[in-house]
Amino acid sequence: MPPLPAQLTHAQAPAWLTAAERAVAQAPAGATLTLDAAALRTFDSSALAALLAVRRAVVARGLAWRIEGLPPRLRTLAAVYGVQALLPG
Length: 89
Prior knowledge:
The chain has a single domain (7-86), classed as 2-Layer Sandwich (Transcription Regulator spoIIAA). Helix content is 46%, strand content 16%. The strands form two sheets. The chain has a two-stranded parallel sheet. The protein is an alpha/beta fold. The longest helix is centred in the middle third of the chain and has 17 residues, at 45-61. Helix 1 runs parallel beside helix 2 (45-61). It has helices at 13-26, 45-61, 72-81; strands spanning 7-8, 32-36, 42-43, 64-68.
């Protein structure tokens, strides 16, 4: 799974999501994917939308995933939207 970049806004989200969905599609059955979010510093709601899209792809393949190093501000944004439980880690 490609790590989250330092910046993930509306401009960067589509390219990152394409790479992440490709990684999900290529993961072996039964895999647990780990997403490294430690570098993420600048983001908007597009980052949250991208993470939820990755979650849909992971669930559709019957895989597991976890997120390491998710910034507290992004967790807060997820809570505002009521989706914090969908972001593991």
